[in-house]
Each structure stands twice: as C-alpha cells, then as structure tokens.
Write a structure and sequence with these properties.
Distance between the termini: 30 Å
Strand order of the largest sheet: 3-2-1-4-5-6
Mean pLDDT: 90
Low-confidence stretches: 1-7, 235-239
Shape: globular
C-alpha cells in the first residue's frame, strides 16, 4: 500500500466514474455513435464526445429526439446498454494508477456519475473497483438535474455528510467541472484518459478547473497541498 498523504482540510473527495476511475470514454462514445447511427441519427464518436461527454444518456436522448422530431426506437436504451456492456466486459480497463491513488487518500471518497447505477456496477465491477467504492456510489438518476447542474455533487456531499466548500471533485468533462463549480466545490481536471486529445488540459482549465493533472498517482500529493490551505478549497487556485 502507498504511503497515505494527509489532507486535513478536506471532508470528501468526489470522483467522476467514466474517464476518471475507468478508461471508458472511447468505448462509450463509439457505442453511443454506433447505436444512434443505426437508429437514423448519423453521428461519429468524436461528435458524441464533443456534445455529450459527462452528460447523462437521458439528456443526450432528449436533444437527439428534439432534432429528429420523433422519438428514438423503444428499444434504443436496451440496444445501447447491450452494446456498451459487451464492450466493457471485453475491453474496459481501470485508469492507470487509480488503485495507488485510492491507497494514498486518507479522507472519505465517493463516486458521482452521470451514468446509471447498473452501468457503474458493470464498469466498476469489470475493473474490480466496485466493492472498494460501494456503497458510496451516486448517479444522476437520483437527482432532478444532471451535470452541468450542481445537483448531483450537492446530493453526494449531503449523503456523505460533507461540507460542499470542503469537497474536491475529480472530473474529466467540461460539464462535470461546471457542475462542481456551481456546487461551490474545488475541482481537479484529469486529462490522463485515452479519450483526452492534445490541448484537452487547456479546455479543462478554461472551464474553471482548479488545476489539471494527467497522472492519477499525483492525486494524493495534490490533495495534500489543497488540504493545507486555510482558505476554502473552492477558492484555491493553483499557478
């Protein structure tokens, strides 16, 4: 086990799931694009990435149906889930270094994802992270508004009895960063996933990330430095 780095000013670390705990975004965007295209809405995986990364499938479906002027097939969600879960079971890997990062964090952690609980059971289960993080796993299905609204992050903090201003969120999406900021939380932009293009770190900074990093093994030290600050974490800004 890695040395534990103290982070005394923190109440809670909130992890996004896809692209932060599991390296799933390339798989997910391709599956989403394939199924949408087969349903009469031609779209590429890159376009799914640009439009829907970090947002719930429900929100994406609403936008697509508004553009189509009709509903997607009744079995759309089932088809998407089947294709996605098959791909997860075959190809999904945990984000490199996440186990070491979790070993080095000495404050409570939880998950707050736009994905469904079933999706997280599959993705986190396939990467042997589910039992480590359960039962502190929260989904946008539990709140009225998904990311970029703050609802999910505030819900997670309330469930974990944490002060929002003493929470740090680890996110890879622009929607997630905006949601965390709206919740009054510090947010770290992670750009180490296989889906992150050149220049993606700059996009995370522009969205308001407190700081950005690309190696999950750096996280305990980053949290320690944030936790040493006497100002509210959400007001801390790295140079």
């Amino acid at each position: 086990m890695a040395d534990v780095t103290p982070a005394s000013n923190l109440d809670l670390v909130i992890f996004d799931c896809d692209g932060v705990l599991v390296d799933s975004e390339v798989i997910s965007c391709q599956a989403h694009a394939d199924v949408l295209t087969s349903c009469g809405y031609p779209i590429t995986a890159d376009q799914v990435f640009d439009r829907f990364l970090g947002r719930s499938s429900k929100q994406a479906t609403f936008e697509v149906e508004a553009e189509l002027g009709r509903s997607l097939p009744e079995d759309f969600n089932a088809r998407l889930q089947d294709q996605l879960f098959r791909a997860f079971e075959q190809d999904l890997r945990a984000v490199d270094g996440i186990g070491q990062a979790l070993d080095g964090i000495d404050v409570p952690v939880c998950v707050a994802s736009s994905g469904s609980h079933q999706r997280m059971r599959v993705s986190l289960g396939a990467t042997r992270l589910y039992d480590r993080l359960a039962p502190h796993i929260f989904s946008s299905s539990q709140v009225e508004n998904g990311k970029p609204a703050p609802d999910l992050f505030l819900f997670a903090a309330a469930q974990m009895k944490a002060r929002p201003a003493a929470c740090v969120v680890v996110e890879d999406s622009l929607a997630g960063i905006r949601g965390a900021l709206a919740a009054g939380m510090a947010v770290l932009g992670f750009h180490g996933g296989s889906h992150c293009r050149p220049g993606y770190a700059d996009s995370l900074r522009a969205a308001g990330a407190t700081l950005v990093f690309d190696d999950m093994r750096q996280l305990p030290l980053i949290l320690s430095r944030l936790g040493e600050k006497t100002v509210p974490l959400a007001g801390f800004s790295a140079v």
